[in-house]
Amino acid sequence: QVQLVESGGGLVQAGGSLRLSCAASESISRTNVMGWYRQGPGKQRDLVATITSDGRTNYAAYVKGRFTIFRDDAKNTVYLQMNDLKSVDSDVYFCYYAVLGGTSAYWGQGTPVTVSS
Fold first, then answer.
1. Which of 3, 36, 67, 68 places its Cα 20 to 30 Å from the Cα of 57?
2. pLDDT at 11 over 80
3. Vertex 22, ends 57 and 63: CA angle to 5°?
């Protein structure tokens, strides 16, 4: 079973930047999607950004132009570069991995992001 280990969350002032990283514990499928979701207390888990193994990206509208998702397949790692952070970006961010066309999805343990205004 694939384990996803996240890092890079923390406290930052509004307007600042953070880079989240998520490393898969073992080799992953050649056709897959990886990404990031966010979740607040008592709320559903919402899409932030995803990237497929062939490089197609998908972003939530409110992060376009501020966040960039990219991946390093040699390291089985996906990144989320977050710039111009706002207080509304504060949440717990979860890494996601799934095989395209498959039925299983994997989640990281979550990393908190707090943006102070």
1. 3
2. yes
3. 40
DSSP letter at 61 equals G
Average pLDDT, the chain: 95
Contact 23, 11 (CB under 8 A): no
Q: Which two tokens stand for residue 74?
A: 């040699």
pLDDT at 28 over 80: no
For residue 99, the cross-strand partners are 32
- Interior angle at CA 89, CA 88 and CA 90, nearest 5: 90
With left for phi above 0 and alpha for psi between -120 and 50, is residue 116 left, alpha or beta?
beta
Query: CA-CA distances (angstroms) from residue 63 to 37, 83, 86, 92?
Result: 12, 9, 10, 15
Q: What angle do CA 59, 60, 64 make, to 5 degrees?
A: 65
